[in-house]
TrEMBL record:
It comes from the Bacteria. It catalyses: 2 superoxide + 2 H(+) = H2O2 + O2. It holds the Pfam family Sod_Fe_N. This is Superoxide dismutase. It is an enzyme of class 1 (oxidoreductase). Belongs to the iron/manganese superoxide dismutase family. Keywords: Metal-binding, Oxidoreductase. Residues 3-84 form the Manganese/iron superoxide dismutase N-terminal domain. Residues 95-192 form the Manganese/iron superoxide dismutase C-terminal domain. Its EC number is 1.15.1.1. It comes from Sinorhizobium psoraleae. The keyword Oxidoreductase applies.
């Protein structure tokens, strides 16, 4: 199953002023495309091109670092674009998700603080995550292109903290980018969709 670059689910200007057209053009059209191109080549060389993306990510983890880096980043970015929407973020969570965040993470305000802290505290490139593991929500961070799939969890929300995801708009102010992401960009409907799939 060849990797393919998905179209953005919104216009390049849709997320402004929190994420600019220029950031999306570089991030989606150049960075994500490179993961797709390199991932396809490396998956074919490894004889794994017939597998699903999730299987390639899991099989290449710890065994084929170049393939894992590209497959992991392709997986992460497919969802990253869908985890954002115009007019997103904030406290208007679907009820089921709100209840889970209250019971597992101590409520929305604590989730917000802990999620932003995970992203801020990830040294260098990486991601911050909200995942389902053993039936409960947890917040984590991973380096580079790694994601919770390889740690027995199902990611339901992730934020990219590689510099290319925010440097054009926020320079080195990663916490401001993370605050803008949580408060103004999260597509809670897609988070709920992934939560319900992970809970099955």
């Amino acid at each position: 199953m060849a990797f393919e670059l998905p179209n953005l689910p919104y216009d390049y200007d849709a997320l402004a002023p929190y994420m600019s057209r220029e950031t999306l053009e570089y991030h989606h059209d150049k960075h994500h495309l490179a993961y797709v191109t390199n991932g396809n080549k490396l998956a074919e060389e490894a004889g794994l091109s017939g597998l699903s993306l999730e299987e390639v990510v899991k099989k290449s983890y710890g065994t084929n670092q170049p393939l894992f880096n590209n497959a992991g980043q392709h997986y992460n970015h497919i969802h990253f674009w869908k985890w954002m929407k115009k007019g997103g973020g904030g406290t208007s969570l679907p009820g089921k998700l709100d209840a889970a965040i209250k019971s597992d993470l101590g409520g929305y305000d604590k989730f917000r603080a802990d999620f932003i802290a995970a992203g801020t505290g990830q040294f260098g490139s990486g991601w911050a995550w909200l995942s389902v593991k053993n039936g409960k929500l947890e917040i984590s961070k991973t380096p580079n292109g790694e994601n919770p799939l390889v740690h027995g969890a199902s990611p339901i929300l992730g934020v990219d903290v590689w510099e290319h995801s925010y440097y054009i708009d926020y320079r080195n102010a990663r916490p401001k980018y993370l605050e803008a992401f949580v408060d103004n960009l999260i597509n809670w409907d897609y988070v709920l969709e992934m939560y319900e799939a992970a809970a099955k």
